[in-house]
Structure formats: C-alpha cells, structure tokens
Design a protein that fits this description.
This protein is mainly β and 435 residues long. It contains nine helices and 24 strands. The protein folds into two domains: 88 residues; 312 residues, 5 Propeller (Tachylectin-2, Chain A).
C-alpha cells in the first residue's frame, strides 16, 4: 500500500475497491476489463519477443486469446516464426475473449511480426584503450572481427572520435553501442570521465551519441548534477551507461551505476532517452538495488526474460567484501522487479582474480552467446559461452587482438557496414571484406 502513513485509510480504500468490483454486474466487469486491456505499441508494431498477455482482468474477468495465424503467434502469445525479409511484415490479429459468468466481451489487437534477423557477417567492438597513457587511452575506439574471437583495430587503434569534442570532461570510458529497433541507426553511450585530468574522485555525467551509418556521430553530454540538481546534488559517480529498447514503453532506456558522496552503495539508475537521443525525458530513477551494490550492468532479453549481468560482490556481517565477480539478476520487465542470483558466473571469482566490464552478445547465425569480461590488471579480455544465459562454459577462452581494450561492447554488423567502416578508417580483416 502506497499510503504507509495511514495504514487504516489504505485498508479502507482497498476494501472499498474490492467491494466495488464485487458489486459490478458480469457485463460491467467484462466491459471494464476489455477497456483496460492493452498490448504495448512496441510489441504490436515490430514483434520479435513473446507477447506478455493477461489471463485475468482487473475486475476478475477470465481472458482467453485466439491468434489469426497460430503458425506465427500461438494462442498463448508465443512468437513461433518471423516475417520474411523479402516481403511485407506479416500481420496477426490477437483476439481476447473476456468472460464473467454468462457475460462476454471481445477485443482485438493487430500485431506486426518483425522480420527475420539481418544477415550479419561480422562484429564491431567499441572500447577504450588500456595500454598507453590515460591522456590518449580514454577515447572511443573500434575493432572488427569476422568470427568474434580474432579482432583487428580500426584506424591503427587511434580514436574514431575525439573525447575533447564529445564529452564534458575531455575523456570517456566504458562505451556501449546498440543497433536501433528499426535497424536504421545506432546509439552509443559512455562514461563522461577523464581520470588523467581529474582523477577518480568525481564524475557526474554520461555521453550520448547517435549515428545513421556508424561513421558519423551526433553527440551530447549530460551532467546529472546540473540537469537534476535536487535528485543528484550529492552525486559522486555516474558509471558505465548502456542502452536497451523497451517494447513496453516503445522507448530507449539508458541505465547506469550511481554512487552518492555520503553512501558507499552503488546502485543502478535509469531514464528513457528523448526522441533525438540528446538527454532524458524525465529525471532518472532507481532501477535495481543489488544487495551489496554493483557496477557495469548489461541487460539482454531472451525467451520472455531479461537477464541483467553485472559485477557484484559478497560481504560478511561486518560489511567487508570477501568475493567479487560477474553475477546476474532476472526479471520479466525492464522496470523489474529483479531477482538477484548470488552465484558467480565468471571463471575467476573463486581464484581471487578480478574482472569487470561484463558484456553479453549473441553470435551471428547461432543460438550461442558470448559473455566477455575485462581482466583489467593484465591486459586480457576473455569470455565464456552459453546457450540459455544461465549455464556458461566453465573454462574461459581468450580473444586474439592487436589492441588492448578496456570495458567495451559488441554488436553484429553486415558486410556492407564492414566495408563502410573500412573505407573510413581501415583495419577490417580481408575475409570480411570479401563477403
């Protein structure tokens, strides 16, 4: 109950609501429930998830569903097949029948089934460096691979964007890249932080970038301390932002770790980006409160579940950390609630070898996923594989690369995109350019 100051009043309001619902006729219940029934626009206009559909209305009606094309979407909302890229998107009508006693009502929703995935031939790794002076390392760089294991730096491992131009501090860390829902543009976010100049004491913002071609980027930087002076007046760090599309809101959610100056805890906050990806629609809010705090969050969707990977830790009864590594939480919605799993996924947590910057991505034309992480004390980047995102191969594998990446992220790219990147910066492997 929201009104915790007046529990008796809250109880009376709840009882009144229940009594009111009980006093409705069956017809009124079905009509009210049909009116309230919705499928979010993000699901209806480009479905490549399972539908989240209700079985009970708010007034108690029983809801059953019927698909007009059950070979594409089952009656219980499971997506079974995608539209062919050669034609128009398949339209499926999902009809809900609401029943209360002898009364019935119907409501239909038209669903556009997303195209099958693009023919992605390679991979793009966005990162910042870890092998040189920080004055040059804290910049956005790109690497490309044909197989997600053997990597080659673009632009001779020089920055593809100047931090002096795109950030407020003159430095960036932890870049994350995302292909848009309509496949026509790309979003990139990064920590706005210059440790070479300012140290580790304080950074209040993030960088937000958008591109239509991967080579030309529009940029903005957001200082949460200045933009939201009441909520974030006492902020110390804003770290490792990432972006994900939320079909329930039909918007892009940016999430990141926040630490306040008077609190040792590190929590995840989030906000929906505005339409031109230059800032937030509203003041960012708390997304996830890990028991012992966490950094470097990375969320991916699979089979009706959001998997939230992060660097977590475990503390004793005195608050002293005795273990850390990569863990995960799961949820049915991006807004939670999140169920935290306290088991460690990386191969190093039991060996007291520190890792951070976990990032998960799906292999092209495969049902396998790569969970990669940064062994930041020794210039190594390693990974483990999974098909279900719960169980991972126990032995870590190593990337081969001609650069030393720090906390970054990977997306799949087409052969055309690989050629475009090569024309701009060079460095794409020949076997990818032949596709």
């Amino acid at each position: 109950m929201k009104n915790i100051k007046y529990p008796f009043l809250s109880l009376i309001l709840l009882m009144t609501t229940v009594v009111f619902a009980q006093n409705k006729t069956d017809k009124e219940k079905t009509i009210a429930d049909a009116k309230a029934l919705q499928i979010p626009e993000g699901y209806t206009k480009n479905l490549h998830w399972n539908l989240l559909i209700d079985s009970i209305g708010t007034s108690g009606s029983t809801i059953s569903w019927k698909s007009s094309k059950s070979d594409y979407i089952s009656n219980d909302g499971k997506l079974l097949k995608r539209s062919s890229r050669k034609g128009k998107k398949v339209k499926v009508t999902m009809t809900a029948t609401l029943t209360s006693g002898s009364a019935k009502a119907k409501k239909s929703f038209d669903i556009s089934v997303a195209y099958t995935d693009q023919e992605l031939q390679g991979y793009l790794f966005t990162y910042f460096e870890g092998s040189g002076p920080r004055t040059s390392d804290e910049q956005v760089r790109f690497g490309v691979s044909a197989d997600a294991v053997n990597w080659f730096a673009l632009n001779n491992n020089q920055p593809i964007l100047s931090s002096e131009t795109i950030s407020g501090t003159g430095g960036i860390r932890d870049p994350h890249i995302l292909r848009s829902e309509d496949e026509k543009s790309f979003y990139m976010v990064a920590t706005d932080m210059n440790t070479a100049k300012n140290g580790w004491g304080h950074n209040p913002g993030i960088v937000m970038l958008q591109s239509d071609n991967l080579t030309d980027w529009k940029h903005h930087f957001i200082d949460l301390e200045k933009s939201y002076p009441i909520k974030f007046a006492n902020i110390q760090w804003v770290w490792a932002p990432q972006t994900i599309y939320d079909p329930a809101a039909d918007k892009y959610m940016v999430y990141f770790t926040v630490k306040y100056k008077d609190d040792l805890k590190l929590d995840f906050y989030c906000g929906y980006a505005n339409k031109d990806f230059s800032g937030f629609e509203n003041e960012p809010k708390l997304l996830f409160y890990p028991k012992y705090g966490a950094i470097d969050g990375d969320i991916i969707y699979k089979d009706g579940t959001y998997h939230f990977f992060f660097k977590g830790n475990t503390k004793d009864e005195n608050g002293k950390e005795f273990k850390n590594g990569i863990r995960q939480a799961i949820g049915k919605s991006l807004q939670g609630p999140w169920t935290e799993n306290f088991n460690y996924l990386d191969a190093y947590s039991d060996r007291k070898i520190v890792v951070e910057g976990s990032s998960i991505f799906k292999l092209n034309q495969s049902d396998s996923y790569i969970l990669m992480y940064d062994l930041y004390t020794n210039h190594r980047y390693e990974f483990q594989r999974s098909k279900d995102l719960y169980q991972f191969t126990p032995a870590p594998e190593s990337f081969t690369k001609n650069f030393y990446p720090r906390h970054g992220s990977v997306i799949g790219i087409t052969a055309e995109e690989a050629k475009r990147l090569n024309e701009k910066w060079g460095g794409v492997p020949e076997n990818l350019l032949k596709n």
